[in-house]
Amino acid sequence: MRVDGRTNDQLRPITIERGWSKQAEGSALISFGNTRVLCTASFTNGVPRWMSGKGKGWVTAEYSMLPRSTNSRMDRESVKGKIGGRTHEISRLIGRSLRAVVDMKALGENTLVLDCDVLQADGGTRTAAITGAYVALADALEWGRAKKFISAKAQPLIDSVSAVSVGIIGGVPMLDLAYTEDVRADTDMNVVVTGRGLFVEVQGTAEAAPFDRTELNSLLDLALSGAVSLTGFQKSALAEAAPASVQGR
Amino acid sequence: MRVDGRTNDQLRPITIERGWSKQAEGSALISFGNTRVLCTASFTNGVPRWMSGKGKGWVTAEYSMLPRSTNSRMDRESVKGKIGGRTHEISRLIGRSLRAVVDMKALGENTLVLDCDVLQADGGTRTAAITGAYVALADALEWGRAKKFISAKAQPLIDSVSAVSVGIIGGVPMLDLAYTEDVRADTDMNVVVTGRGLFVEVQGTAEAAPFDRTELNSLLDLALSGAVSLTGFQKSALAEAAPASVQGR
Amino acid sequence: MRVDGRTNDQLRPITIERGWSKQAEGSALISFGNTRVLCTASFTNGVPRWMSGKGKGWVTAEYSMLPRSTNSRMDRESVKGKIGGRTHEISRLIGRSLRAVVDMKALGENTLVLDCDVLQADGGTRTAAITGAYVALADALEWGRAKKFISAKAQPLIDSVSAVSVGIIGGVPMLDLAYTEDVRADTDMNVVVTGRGLFVEVQGTAEAAPFDRTELNSLLDLALSGAVSLTGFQKSALAEAAPASVQGR
Amino acid sequence: MRVDGRTNDQLRPITIERGWSKQAEGSALISFGNTRVLCTASFTNGVPRWMSGKGKGWVTAEYSMLPRSTNSRMDRESVKGKIGGRTHEISRLIGRSLRAVVDMKALGENTLVLDCDVLQADGGTRTAAITGAYVALADALEWGRAKKFISAKAQPLIDSVSAVSVGIIGGVPMLDLAYTEDVRADTDMNVVVTGRGLFVEVQGTAEAAPFDRTELNSLLDLALSGAVSLTGFQKSALAEAAPASVQGR
Amino acid sequence: MRVDGRTNDQLRPITIERGWSKQAEGSALISFGNTRVLCTASFTNGVPRWMSGKGKGWVTAEYSMLPRSTNSRMDRESVKGKIGGRTHEISRLIGRSLRAVVDMKALGENTLVLDCDVLQADGGTRTAAITGAYVALADALEWGRAKKFISAKAQPLIDSVSAVSVGIIGGVPMLDLAYTEDVRADTDMNVVVTGRGLFVEVQGTAEAAPFDRTELNSLLDLALSGAVSLTGFQKSALAEAAPASVQGR
Amino acid sequence: MRVDGRTNDQLRPITIERGWSKQAEGSALISFGNTRVLCTASFTNGVPRWMSGKGKGWVTAEYSMLPRSTNSRMDRESVKGKIGGRTHEISRLIGRSLRAVVDMKALGENTLVLDCDVLQADGGTRTAAITGAYVALADALEWGRAKKFISAKAQPLIDSVSAVSVGIIGGVPMLDLAYTEDVRADTDMNVVVTGRGLFVEVQGTAEAAPFDRTELNSLLDLALSGAVSLTGFQKSALAEAAPASVQGR
């Protein structure tokens, strides 16, 4: 039994507050247990100069943690004057994950910036960020359609995407690691999966102990099952009526 | 009548969610209408090296806005690699305001860092930050007392503190300006007031039109009346039972 | 009696060396006692791209202290690679103060940059900077008029502006604090006043002890009387023949 | 047939010039075809202050590309004043990969810094860097043993480690992608494997097209076969007599 | 005849206002014609940690230009967030030049920082800075002796040092170039010479046209003659009674 | 006799591997004994915006040291976030030296960037860099001619250029100092000379002991003789058939 009473293949309680922000074209406050990430999607008509004239859009992401999202306070990267390696790495991962489900031609010359700010951290912040950012993205695309920046027939979303962590702790594969589990894991893997069950990213790391093919396979099985559940949560959230900020403004 | 139906001397709806963060020693999610600021207080036993051995504590603050807290997305200061003048100025203001109500000798060699992160901005973010940070600070001091870092008899809090904006719009003094009011104001003033009604900061600025003594006085009257209400909201929030994270952890 | 023999409502000796710089379109080396600030005004025909086409001008300011302007040497901000909060705050204050007396339409699409470099510091550097910058600004506007960048009929200067510090020391309100007074003050206020006696900025701060309405009023009285004298010094300086660098070049 | 005549499961020509640097405790100039990376290992007795007293060592890595290692010149990160996300990500990957085969207790309180500087880039720079860094690391450990910083009995190296890229191009899995192949790949995966055939890192990315379990498996098969060959090249290089700089100095 | 009526071997008018700063242990406002540089010397008892315990002192320098010291305004290096190559180069030159005439053993564990801030620039700012910094240095050493940080018998100054620019313009060697001459020079040389006539630095640069041995010799002749005059100005300045700030404070 | 058996007027073994890089338009890996510098020349058709329309080209250079090119590892400037004074100074020196032998009109609106990266350092890195960069530059100009960016008749190279260090050690002038000699030198001089024997730069520095005219002359004699040999090595290298990357690509 795990520290919070879950079974090894069980996600933490997942909640998605869609449209949390009144300012953004799309937004979601997502929780994976005590991990809480505010995801906003900013829609801009037009693309950066180096991309213009190609009839294609652009999707990018930035990840950050509030200084006291963690158990002991971290210095702000803005105060330090530079962004750390981990922040860079996760921002890039989120961006790639979302681009994998967007048809840039169908998006047209529009730009989407996903901001994922961790308000409270308890493990799995990058996977919660990807899962929540998808919901924000879907709403911002609807906003763009309502505003006629995306044509009526275009289908820029070609699939949904979610992410989950898996790891081996004391020899046992487990799904959706909380922070105290994460630090004890021999192997830690983040898996990004589309709604159709295809892999977008597989990032397995063995700082404590290298892993074999069998362990890899059991982790992938767990991750795919978790992704099915997360896809369900995303669908439920998006099935409700769109927040006012998404419809019109 | 104002855009949101308020009278000129009326605050926006104020809410304070005390103990919003499970990680911080004290915290409050405060709303002044659509302005929402997450304030956390981080308590550390000990002081920076340059202060140690004097038997006195230290209180400091950092303010920041999420990139999409505003109507159009701002670049992150961490990405730009430097903190802007406005951020610096408000961080310093919050720090001074809170230090004005803390007895550093009674605090002892302990450090408090107040982080005020604007999740959604609609005018008055610095005044909401000060008002919410006081609640987070009060809880973090209780945590320090529970942990015996502050002696039982010490009274580090010598008063409460809150802040409110006032301004003259079309010749009429108004309390607690929303963003659309703020941009139209001839004169804008931020006033920081203690629970006993004394001034901590008076910052009046006239970019559009210089103001005379009579106008200054009417603005100060409004601010003092607003501060009385804000003090009431703070008292109500702190009258409830302390969140679990404050009591023990 | 004060440390330098002044009465409580007396300014330090004020001198203004107009046209100190041969390079700048306007300049003044101003002294408030031992505080010496070199103020230069740089006039450029045209405005930053984001402002062009609106028929309006722009005025901005930068403040800095030489590393050994103070009693013990400070590190250079250029060497540290970032500008501190205090520098930012004062630069912004100077800019706002001067913009308050300039009619941007009458200025036309021209830019003025005021540089205020503290050569020697003994309290009141920001108030000396504002008072001196006004003289430099007035001369640079005349230069712009001589060069036909400003039309003959335009009156970009709508008032003069000066600034002075006031504070309460040992319960007594005092005018124009020297450094040793400043560090002992319970309350410190910087007041920016136009030649007509209207307020542009009122910035009162109580780090040591909050202040009441009566104290605030006595400080404002002192500041207004000081501003009358400073306006006189500015007028005298500008009444002399313009320096060669301002007339033609 | 591939552009350079290789079969799909064939590595490019691999060369390892061990001891290329006269200054470093261990070094290797490694080539994967036209990709050339200079790897140096710097051995320091002692660890960073935050680690000292724990009887454990530390291994870290930094990756960088010379500005003209690529087809068109890139700006230097030192000139830009900040390190990009990709550089951070790869530096961290190299560090983790090498730490996976080092027993930090056996290393004792010693620090190893691996510098991997890409002199010429043609795809697979990070995998060449890991493979070459292992050789430099092995030599630096021997140097540390010769100098008695590592005890005679200690076995800090618990396995060897190498890395290779694999990808799916036009539906076909291929080993060790050159640059022109890399940009055409639908899926790109970097796999870090120990000499015993265990995984240290599996990083699969699908920016162009998500991949399924079957594709993932075929890529892992290819990677494992490539790793066997790379391990052989490492063994051959290390089987020769140690360079003078490693033996004594 | 030169633009300002000088002969080819004539310096511009040189003035040295010793003790210009009331704050610094030594200071000089030096003019080479319209070039005006404020030089301050900051004396600190003790040396940086990496030098302590060796019984030797340290002398370093920083050079900077005010943004409007030049004909058109330059951006501040503090605002740009980095120091340019030219600033670095000149700061290092000044430091080396002064260290050449200081006996670090006789100085003892004391640190001198020379700040040379160009208030007005018209060519030769680095040579004026070195010449003025020597005067500030000499006074700061006297201050250190008066304060007993330097022992009574110690002779830390082993020589004096000054600097002057020379150049070839239209085939003619000239002494102490003003800005308009400097930009027209084929060859430009800065020469740092001790009071005894020995070279400390010879920096000749030929961006427009390489020079031969004969030209080099004629430039060195001119520079040596100029240095004799500058040494005289330094002696005269130092022959007067020391300013109050140097004697006691 | 010198430490490596050379006579005082003897260069270390010089090797030039022309066309070392397959990516750059021109390149050379140059060795002065154990000092090894990789010099690449990047040719771009066009000039920076501020230069365009003048019919002239631009040549610039950047110098850097790999972190473990030296005996003990240095921190990377990219990681520190700023470039040090020494790096700036040498980059500027290399750029000026090469510009002295290029006719910018004949070059036309083309840009050449010389990157000099020190792979192994043993004294004289800047002189090796200049000497090698000339070879890379010459090849890149040929590439530009082959590509018709430079007209057939144009002669952008007006001379060759090389550089060598000289110094006085224990009273004896010596040529081409190795690192252990450099640190013992009383006077150190870097001399940049054209193929015709004219001076481009003369940079003599006396941190340990000022030098007189006789010593200066003997150093210049040594440098000129060394330059003759270096010019010979450059000619030999360029006399061979051009590498494939230079001819066509």
From TrEMBL, chains A, B, C, D, E, F:
Which top EC class is named for this enzyme in its record? transferase
What quaternary arrangement does the UniProt entry report?
A: Homohexameric ring arranged as a trimer of dimers.
Official protein name in the record: Ribonuclease PH
Q: Which InterPro entries match?
A: ExoRNase_PH_dom1, ExoRNase_PH_dom2, ExoRNase_PH_dom2_sf, PNPase/RNase_PH_dom_sf, Ribosomal_Su5_D2-typ_SF, RNase_PH, RNase_PH_bac-type, RNase_PH_CS
Reactions it catalyzes: tRNA(n+1) + phosphate = tRNA(n) + a ribonucleoside 5'-diphosphate
Looking up Gene3D superfamilies in the UniProt record yields:
GHMP Kinase, N-terminal domain (3.30.230.70)
Say which domain of life the source belongs to: Bacteria
What family classification does the UniProt entry report for this protein?
A: Belongs to the RNase PH family.
Name a Pfam family for this protein. RNase_PH
EC assignment: 2.7.7.56
Which residues does the record give as phosphate binding sites? 86, 124-126
UniProt function note = Phosphorolytic 3'-5' exoribonuclease that plays an important role in tRNA 3'-end maturation. Removes nucleotide residues following the 3'-CCA terminus of tRNAs; can also add nucleotides to the ends of RNA molecules by using nucleoside diphosphates as substrates, but this may not be physiologically important. Probably plays a role in initiation of 16S rRNA degradation (leading to ribosome degradation) during starvation.
GO biological process, any: rRNA 3'-end processing
| Keywords, in A-Z order | Nucleotidyltransferase, RNA-binding, rRNA processing, Transferase, tRNA processing, tRNA-binding
